[in-house]
């Protein structure tokens, strides 16, 4: 049977305590490893890819009671072979942080505070204003050397983002921007 | 990257320039150290001695913005001493191609320069053509008509002494680097934003191209030009064209003076038209037909004379043209240069909408310390987004590897994935326009947009649309070669054709076997194009399809089997076309000539099938067919090569005189270079909300040489006021030996350095360095010169 490194770690975790005492003697490293396995017992696992630089390091995440309880480098990932940098290794904080914004927010003109709003309200406000700006600032034609050409665009709406997005999100954002007639479409690549 | 991360281990010499890979791409070090264990030498060229310099065999401190002079001297040394790979240069580059007799370079400008417009007419940068319209090719590298002779003449000015005077690197160090790089091989180059954030960014990278082509360091393991990209999916977001000037898959976005697809094809070629037709089929489905130009008319068209880059977004807000801005996962109130202008732009908008995880300086620009919110009339809406761990989909790393991210947790609170948010906005807009008969709204009735509403199924459906379909059978397209130009296939991005076939979603593959031992891992995820790990790998073989270097062979022609074979997918037009056939001859099949361009000549490749339309139209840099050294806009010295053309002659700056002042060395005597650190990342929107990382580095600072600290009478931890022509901030001092004063043109020049990761929101707050930096940009990419501006420093 060909087993990969992760399966080996799991197997040795399950068998760890018995093996350590009877066959291998007391090995502090093995005891430590088995303690970690206990913490992850009954947890579900999923893999992800780090969200900082563009090396694309693999991560393993452990979930228990719908909560992310552990995140570490994926030893079977051929690029990072289990390692993560200081930033990547700290990412389990993100889904558990109290600093995350958890509901849509609205800041009225001239106001000095945010107010919580529903998604329906938020999408209504965004699309209503977007439509108003698009309709009032539509360019139908450009003229060059005495000739008119269809322009079909608005220069009053800009869409910016994002190198943090997944490919599918980038694709849909570009598709939506062009449907709206937007030519000011940009993101971090120039930064 | 032409190659990929693991491939770094195959190099025998690695030049890292304009990158602190150890801190900003830490895991690359795993493979660099593997190369070192196998005897590779590492050269690091950077303005500051960093953790990357520490593992280098040779370190050279370079003045920010002078890389072209440094690389020019190495290229000149190679040319003068005939150290180039002659066979490669003759057969795989345009060295022997006859260049237009009118081509010239005098007093800092190339032929065709229009001083008033600050623009080149590129006619004289072309080849001399024969009757069939293809280039005349000579036989001798000494032929005065051929490009190689022009190249030698151009570079002859770049002596070691000239380069040393400009860069501050001692002559003997430049020579040592040149000898080390030329004599060991294969050699690879790694670079990051240290090379691109300049007003000569594109030409910096062109210098790498010339160097690698001369040495034949292309298409083989351990070679290439490798961009260490700065964001997790900036490769993908550029592939998918979140940029104004092109469409998904890197073909030009249409201008209004190209009213039909044929007009567009005249300027862009039939080769790319095929990909455009597939995009239109993906976007408009059955509504795209040959009779209606596949829906080309519904697309918005740019004004050919306008620049729609991010800087213009803020600048057009100042004159009330820009009203509405939608920002997704980006924090320009920290990361954009000349932040005072950016803030003013935000204040003029009608509405700002931001998707993000944490509260950012951008979304709360109206809370900036010192401003009165009651005077800011902009409506702001913050949409809470799911983090990368709370949603599914793919991202693409620097080595073009497309990887699926899974999830097992729900978004926090009421947060939603960006994918779901875009779907909500688009479908609502479509709904608002459903009764409209205005032609401008027709596109909402024609565009395909029906996706499952749940995040994972939606991502799956969108990836299939990106891959594309054979529309006759309804099956997923098998790859790029399956895409047709007649509307019978679709693909949302031709580069990704093959990522998701009837066999399954290849971005999920986990096969970990590496048969060649070269780190190819052909069944681990999938990379574009067509799972080719090293692009241009046809160039690893000679004109007859035989490996140049038997010990480092990669791809070759197997005459017995009648096909190209090797350790990777062969990067050829047709796998069964022999080295003497059109589909197997070209080492660089993406160029019309099929060879590497030492000189970036303009060329229309004729298409025999679609005459008179061109097959390919070469894209050339706006600022010259060869990389010439120009000083940064804010420079501490004169340009000794051509004092009257000191800066890039194609640069239009300031764009708004009152808001974009240029500092002089008399008032601002020190050179400021900025970058990121291992513990914080970009705007710090995420990392400054992670307590562990804040414990490691809790605030911003300025690194300065001991000599300057002595002069200012400051020590570690003291506060100083740092000012530029654009702003002033107060920060703590770190006195360092990692930067030394440089000797430039006979005078001492002092460089200082700051991280740019801070702002006034999050758990760790400090002044933003970008209040100081300059927003002058490269004339090709409009990337700003954040690596070199002038500042003054006073004890606070």
What fraction of the residues of chain B are assigned to beta strands by DSSP?
15-25%
Strand order of the largest sheet of chain B: 28-30-29-34-27-33
Question: What quaternary form is this?
Answer: heterodimer
Number of strands of chain B: 34
Model description:
The complex is a heterodimer of chains A (191) and B (796). Chain A has 191 residues and is an alpha+beta fold. Chain A contains six helices and eight strands. The longest helix of chain A has 18 residues, at 5-22. Chain B is α/β, with parallel strands linked by helices and 796 residues long. In chain B, the strands form twelve sheets. In chain B, strands 28-30-29-34-27-33 form a six-stranded mixed sheet. In chain B, strands 3-2-1-8-9 form a five-stranded parallel sheet, sandwiched between helices. Chain B has a three-stranded parallel sheet with strand order 12-13-14, with no helix packed on it. The radius of gyration of chain B is 26 Å and the shape is globular. The model of chain B has no long low-confidence stretch (mean pLDDT 97). At the A-B interface, strand 1, strand 2, strand 3, helix 4 and strand 4 of A face helix 11, helix 14, strand 12, strand 13 and strand 14 of B. Strand 4 (105-107) of chain A pairs antiparallel with strand 14 of chain B, so a sheet runs across the interface.
Topology:
The complex is a heterodimer of chains A (191) and B (796).
Chain A: H1 5-22, H2 28-40, E1 44-49, E2 58-64, E3 67-73, H3 86-89, H4 93-96, E4 105-107, E5 115-116, H5 119-136, E6 138-144, E7 147-161, H6 167-180, E8 182-186
Parallel strand pairs in A: 7-8
Antiparallel strand pairs in A: 1-2, 2-3, 4-5, 6-7
Helix pairs in contact in A: 1-2
Chain B: E1 13-17, H1 21-24, H2 28-37, E2 41-46, H3 51-54, E3 58-61, H4 67-80, H5 86-92, E4 105-106, E5 109-110, E6 113-114, E7 119-120, H6 147-155, H7 160-167, H8 171-183, E8 187-191, H9 193-196, H10 201-215, E9 225-227, H11 234-239, E10 246-247, E11 251-252, H12 261-268, H13 270-284, H14 310-318, E12 324-328, H15 332-335, H16 339-348, E13 351-356, E14 379-384, E15 393-396, E16 401-405, H17 418-432, H18 442-446, H19 455-467, E17 469-470, E18 475-476, E19 489-490, E20 500-501, E21 504-505, E22 526-527, E23 555-558, E24 563-566, H20 582-585, E25 604-606, E26 614-617, E27 670-675, H21 691-696, E28 701-705, H22 706-712, E29 719-723, E30 728-736, E31 742-744, E32 747-749, E33 751-755, E34 789-795
Parallel strand pairs in B: 1-2, 1-8, 2-3, 8-9, 12-13, 13-14, 27-33, 28-30
Antiparallel strand pairs in B: 4-5, 6-7, 10-11, 15-16, 16-22, 17-18, 17-19, 20-21, 23-24, 25-26, 27-34, 29-30, 29-34, 31-32
Helix pairs in contact in B: 4-7, 4-8, 4-10, 7-8, 12-13, 14-16
């Amino acid at each position: 049977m060909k087993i990969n490194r992760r399966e080996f770690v799991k197997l040795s975790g399950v068998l760890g305590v018995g093996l350590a005492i009877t066959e291998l003697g007391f090995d502090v490293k093995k005891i430590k490893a088995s303690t970690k396995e206990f913490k992850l017992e009954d947890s579900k696992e999923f893999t992800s890819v780090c969200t900082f630089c563009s090396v694309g390091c693999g991560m393993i995440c452990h979930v228990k009671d719908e909560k992310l309880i552990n995140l570490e480098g994926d030893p079977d990932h051929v690029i990072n072979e289990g390692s993560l940098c200081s930033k990547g290794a700290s990412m389990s904080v993100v889904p558990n942080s109290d600093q995350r914004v958890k509901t849509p927010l609205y800041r009225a003109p001239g106001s000095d505070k945010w107010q919580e709003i529903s998604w329906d309200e938020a999408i209504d406000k965004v699309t209503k204003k977007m439509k108003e700006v698009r309709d009032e600032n539509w360019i139908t034609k450009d003229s060059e050397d005495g000739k008119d050409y269809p322009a079909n665009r608005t220069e009053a709406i800009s869409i910016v983002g994002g190198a943090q997005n997944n490919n599918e999100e980038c694709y849909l954002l570009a598709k939506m921007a062009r449907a709206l007639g937007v030519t000011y479409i940009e993101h971090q690549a120039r930064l | 990257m032409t190659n990929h991360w693991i491939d770094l281990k195959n190099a025998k010499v690695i030049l890292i320039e304009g990158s602190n890979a150890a801190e900003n791409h830490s895991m690359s070090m795993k493979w660099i150290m593997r190369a070192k264990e196998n005897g590779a030498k590492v050269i690091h060229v950077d303005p500051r001695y960093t953790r990357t310099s520490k593992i280098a065999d040779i370190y050279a401190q370079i003045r920010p913005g002078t890389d072209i002079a440094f690389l020019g001297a190495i290229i000149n040394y190679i040319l003068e001493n005939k150290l180039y790979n002659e066979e490669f240069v003759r057969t795989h580059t345009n060295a022997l191609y006859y260049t237009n007799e009118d081509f010239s370079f005098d007093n800092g400008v190339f032929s065709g320069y229009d001083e008033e417009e600050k623009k080149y007419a590129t006619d004289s940068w072309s080849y001399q053509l024969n009757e069939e319209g293809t280039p005349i090719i000579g036989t001798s590298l000494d032929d005065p008509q051929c490009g190689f002779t022009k190249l030698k003449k151009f570079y002859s000015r770049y002596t070691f002494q000239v380069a040393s005077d400009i860069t501050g690197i001692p002559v003997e160090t430049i020579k040592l680097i040149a000898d080390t790089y030329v004599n060991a091989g294969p050699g690879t180059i790694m670079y990051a934003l240290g090379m691109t954030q300049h007003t000569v960014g594109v030409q910096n990278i062109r210098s790498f191209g010339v160097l690698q082509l001369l040495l034949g360091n292309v298409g083989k393991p351990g070679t290439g030009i490798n961009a260490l990209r700065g964001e997790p999916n900036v490769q993908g977001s550029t592939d998918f064209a979140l940029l104004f000037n092109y469409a998904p898959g890197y073909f030009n976005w249409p201008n209004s003076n190209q009213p039909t697809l044929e007009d567009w094809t005249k300027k862009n070629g039939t080769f790319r038209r095929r990909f455009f037709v597939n995009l239109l089929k993906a976007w408009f489905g059955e509504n795209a037909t040959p009779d209606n130009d596949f829906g080309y008319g519904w697309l918005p068209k740019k004004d050919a004379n306008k620049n729609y880059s991010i800087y213009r977004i803020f600048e057009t807000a100042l004159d009330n043209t820009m009203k509405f801005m939608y920002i997704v996962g980006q924090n320009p109130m920290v990361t954009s240069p000349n932040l005072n202008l950016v803030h003013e732009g935000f204040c003029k908008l009608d509405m700002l909408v931001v998707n993000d995880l944490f509260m950012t300086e951008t979304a709360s620009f109206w809370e900036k310390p010192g401003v009165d919110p009651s005077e800011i009339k902009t409506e702001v809406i913050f949409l809470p987004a799911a983090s990368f761990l709370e949603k599914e989909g793919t991202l693409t790393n620097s080595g073009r590897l497309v990887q699926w991210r899974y999830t097992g947790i729900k978004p926090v609170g009421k947060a939603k994935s960006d994918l779901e948010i875009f779907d909500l906005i688009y479908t609502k807009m479509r709904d608002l326009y459903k009764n409209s008969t205005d032609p401008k709204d027709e596109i909402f009735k024609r565009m395909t947009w029906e996706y499952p509403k749940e995040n994972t199924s939606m991502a799956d459906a969108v990836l299939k649309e990106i891959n594309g379909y054979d529309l006759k059978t309804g099956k997923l397209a098998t790859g790029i070669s399956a895409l047709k130009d007649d509307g019978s296939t679709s693909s949302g991005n031709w580069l990704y054709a093959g990522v998701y076939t009837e066999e399954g979603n290849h971005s999920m593959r986990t096969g970990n076997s590496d048969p060649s031992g070269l780190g190819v891992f052909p069944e681990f995820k999938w990379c574009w194009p067509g799972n080719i790990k090293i692009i241009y790998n046809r160039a690893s073989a000679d004109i007859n399809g035989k490996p140049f270097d038997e010990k480092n062979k990669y791809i070759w022609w197997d005459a017995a089997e009648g096909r190209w074979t090797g350790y990777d997918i062969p990067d050829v037009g047709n796998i069964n076309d022999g080295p003497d056939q059109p589909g197997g001859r070209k080492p660089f099949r993406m160029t019309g000539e099929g060879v590497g361009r030492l000189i970036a000549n303009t060329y229309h490749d004729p298409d025999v099938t679609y005459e008179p339309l061109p097959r390919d139209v070469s894209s050339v840099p706006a600022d010259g067919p060869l990389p010439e050294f120009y000083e940064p806009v804010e420079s501490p010295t004169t340009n000794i090569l051509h004092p009257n053309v000191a800066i890039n002659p194609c640069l239009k700056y300031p764009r708004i005189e009152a808001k974009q002042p240029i500092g002089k060395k008399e008032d601002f005597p020190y050179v400021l270079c900025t970058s990121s650190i291992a513990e914080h990342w970009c705007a710090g929107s995420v990392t400054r909300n992670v307590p562990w990382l804040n414990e490691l580095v809790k605030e911003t600072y300025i690194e300065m040489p001991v000599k300057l600290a002595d002069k200012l009478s400051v020590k570690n931890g003291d506060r100083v006021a740092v000012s530029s022509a654009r702003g002033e901030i107060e920060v703590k001092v770190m006195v360092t030996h990692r930067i030394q004063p440089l000797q430039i043109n006979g005078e001492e020049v002092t460089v200082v350095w700051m991280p740019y990761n801070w702002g006034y929101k999050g758990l760790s707050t400090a002044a933003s360095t970008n209040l100081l930096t300059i927003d002058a940009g490269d004339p090709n990419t409009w990337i700003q010169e954040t690596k070199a501006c002038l500042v003054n420093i006073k004890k606070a």
